[in-house]
Design goal:
The protein is globular and about 45 Å long. The protein has helices spanning 17-30, 41-44, 61-72, 89-97, 120-132, 160-186; strands at 3-8, 35-40, 75-81, 106-112, 136-141. It is α/β, with parallel strands linked by helices. The longest helix has 27 residues, at 160-186.
Length: 187
């Protein structure tokens, strides 16, 4: 069974994107699709990094733990809100901290907004950055417009049937990418 890291990228107090990360954790477990864990950047509370992990002198245990979890994950789901047309600095911070860990890693992206566009502007820039560092971003998207009307604070979808149907399609490409990645690396 694949191991999925769900990256919850917002560190804001009233964040709603974390509810979507909780949803994916439940969905993966309830459907017995993967072992999964949430890597919550709010809990990590990283400083702004001045260097990459390769050149940081004496990285903290927390940094090493985060890097290991990204490296060991078969695939990653990034859940990010869109703030002012972009994604949070907390996410860019950890993307830039790592490099080798992202290389060839299957990643799918769920963008979230309180408006009607579901984070489409953040998605475009995030896909480009991940592509530039060699990650394997899947093309399926999971935009969540009006997030506060779609998920409760425990990660329950308010329209479970429709949301689960979208999640199934969204995650199918991630699992196919993971499978192909394993075949390539084991050949």
């Amino acid at each position: 069974m694949p191991h999925i890291a769900i990256l919850s990228s917002s560190v804001r107090r009233e964040r709603k994107s974390h509810n979507v990360a909780l949803y994916f954790l439940k969905y993966l477990h309830e459907n017995n699709l993967a072992n999964a864990e949430i890597l919550d950047l709010k809990e990590y509370n990283f400083p702004v990094f001045e260097d990459t992990i390769k050149t940081v002198q004496s990285p903290s245990e927390q940094v090493l733990d985060f890097a290991a979890k990204i490296r060991l994950a078969d695939g990653i789901i990034i859940v990010t809100p869109e703030y002012n047309g972009g994604f949070p600095a907390s996410l860019k911070n950890v993307i830039d901290l790592l490099y080798d860990e992202w290389q060839g890693k299957p990643i799918c992206i769920s963008t979230v907004s309180s408006g009607i566009f579901g984070g489409s502007q953040a998605l475009v820039s995030l896909q480009f950055i991940l592509w530039k560092i060699g990650a394997l971003t899947v093309t399926n998207m999971f935009p969540v417009p009006n997030v506060e009307k779609s998920f409760d604070d425990k990660g329950n979808a308010l329209d479970k049937t429709a949301t689960d149907k979208l999640a199934k399609v969204f995650l199918a490409e991630l699992f196919e990418s993971i499978k192909a990645n394993k075949l390539t690396h084991n050949a």
